[in-house]
Design a protein that fits this description.
The chain is mainly α. The chain is 80% helix and 0% strand. The protein has ten helices and no strands. The longest helix is centred in the first third of the chain and has 48 residues.
């Protein structure tokens, strides 16, 4: 039987079939390897293109650079509070501005920790600023007590208690309110509630706390220059300058943060200019 099959040409046919299958397998492997090679080359080209784009964008489009400058300015604000605590009189401390700075740094410490790219240098400077401004507030309260202004001190305590209670309520109830509104299908309201930088996120409230700083500066535009700290307002001016750009380079992009820093830059530069004029220009005139 085997001889018959062999003589009938069945074995050569089988060999041909096996040979064709082997050729298909080899060709398939070659195509697969070529695809992987091309894919790897494409990924490499994409990485090179991305790196080239980054280099082409330069310093103006670097979130790390502007975030670093903002953090340095933030450290300047903390340093200003420490400097004033060592060398400055408690008389020049503004309790209202100091309280606002404590709330502001509390929110921005959290914001800097979760924003993309993460900015740990900025987060650490705001934690330091909370401690420094807290010490400044203590000095201001002690000064008011020494002056016999008990009504002022009691008013400060009441405001601080109200802010603390309100903040705790927002942290505790915020997630439940956001889930309820986002899932209620209320159109724009639900969309805003679920937004990455919406009113239930620190991306919204950190810039809003900065509006309080700008607002305090705008309301007190005629503040006596002898009660203006050059160190503090220099830091605030630089913070406004750097963050107005930085806010447009982070994820999520924060237009509210950009706008408030433009306002902060303007109001702080106004006070700083008045202080410099009073101390270094007007005093030199005969």
């Amino acid at each position: 039987m085997l001889k018959a099959l062999n003589s009938g040409g069945m074995m050569p046919v089988a060999r041909n079939m096996l040979g064709k299958q082997r050729e298909r397998l080899i060709r398939s492997r070659m195509l697969s390897n070529q695809g992987k090679k091309e894919g790897g080359e494409a990924m490499t080209k994409e990485a090179v293109k991305e790196e080239s784009t980054k280099k082409g964008g330069g310093w103006w489009h670097s979130a790390e650079l502007w975030g670093g400058l903002g953090a340095v300015a933030g450290w300047g604000m903390s340093g200003a509070a420490i400097y004033d605590a060592v060398n400055g009189s408690a008389e020049i401390i503004s309790p209202g501005m100091t309280g606002v700075l404590i709330v502001y740094s509390s929110l921005f410490a959290r914001w800097a920790f979760i924003v993309k790219p993460q900015n740990l240098l900025l987060a650490s400077c705001h934690v330091t600023n909370i401690v420094a401004q807290g010490n400044q507030l203590r000095r201001a309260i002690d000064y008011q007590k020494e002056q016999g202004n008990d009504d002022v001190v009691n008013d400060l305590y009441m405001k601080a208690g109200a802010v603390a209670a309100g903040g705790a309520a927002c942290v505790a109830l915020g997630p439940f309110a956001q889930s309820a509104l986002a899932g209620a299908n209320l159109g724009v309201l639900s969309t805003v509630a679920a937004a990455d930088a919406g009113p239930f996120t620190v991306h919204f409230w950190a810039p809003m706390s900065k509006w309080l700083i700008s607002g305090a500066s705008f309301i007190d535009l005629n503040r006596p220059t002898d009660k203006i700290s050059i160190a503090q307002y220099t830091a605030l001016t630089l913070t406004g300058l750097f963050f107005s750009r930085y806010a447009l380079l982070v994820a999520p992009i924060n237009y509210t943060l950009c706008g408030v820093n433009i306002a902060l830059f303007g109001s702080s530069a106004w006070h700083l200019g008045r202080k410099i004029k009073a101390d270094f220009v007007d005093d030199d005139q005969p």
